[in-house]
Amino acid sequence: MHIAVAGNIGCGKTTLTRMLAQRYGWTPRYESVADNPYLADFYADMKRWSFNLQIYFLNRRFKEVVEISKSQEFIIQDRTIFEDACIFAPNLHDQSMMSDPDFDNYRDLFDLMMSLVKLPDLMIYIRSSISTLVAQIQKRGREYEQTMRLDYLQGLERRYEQWIADYQGQLLIIDGDNCKFGDNPEHFAQVTDRIDTMLYGLFPMFDNH
């Protein structure tokens, strides 16, 4: 089974992925930032490094999807290949930080990959306001994120909402402004109750925790 956690930068994807992996015994797949050779340069000069960064993510994410499809484990993934192609790359293109030829090349490659990719069994989307995202980005204190432009985050938010509105798979939406799953055990229990219902039904005959 493949569970995915989606949402804008700073919404709490990694925290929720870790907590759900521990709760259910699922195998986590985290979005790695420590070994990314482009991330710091990208935030310093988005227009110069946007294509390089997005191709790097697309390559890494596609390899991960192929591995997940072959696995017999219950896997929970922090961010998906769909977000890179449907949100981050188009947002960069819209804001003139990725050229038309680069974006067309990227989309052609993504469309080819999609012939081999299926939707996760459950997509968990954390919806958070810009003010909440900014507060959490500042709190975690990654130096390269502190120069992030507000209009960049706002563009991502619009793209996320468009993507979620048209999403065709099984979807759970969490209110990231009011559901403080990382700090409040009752809020986290509300999330897991909803997951149990969606994956196993009200009276599950099978449970993986």
Tell me what the structure shows.
With 209 residues, the protein is α/β, with parallel strands linked by helices. It is built from eight helices and five strands; from the N terminus they run E-H-E-H-H-E-H-H-E-H-H-E-H. It has a single domain (2-200), classed as 3-Layer(aba) Sandwich (Rossmann fold). It is 55% helix and 11% strand. It has a five-stranded parallel sheet with strand order 2-3-1-4-5, sandwiched between helices. The longest helix is centred in the N-terminal third of the chain and has 25 residues, at 46-70. The protein is globular and about 45 Å long. The model is unreliable at 204-209 (pLDDT under 50).
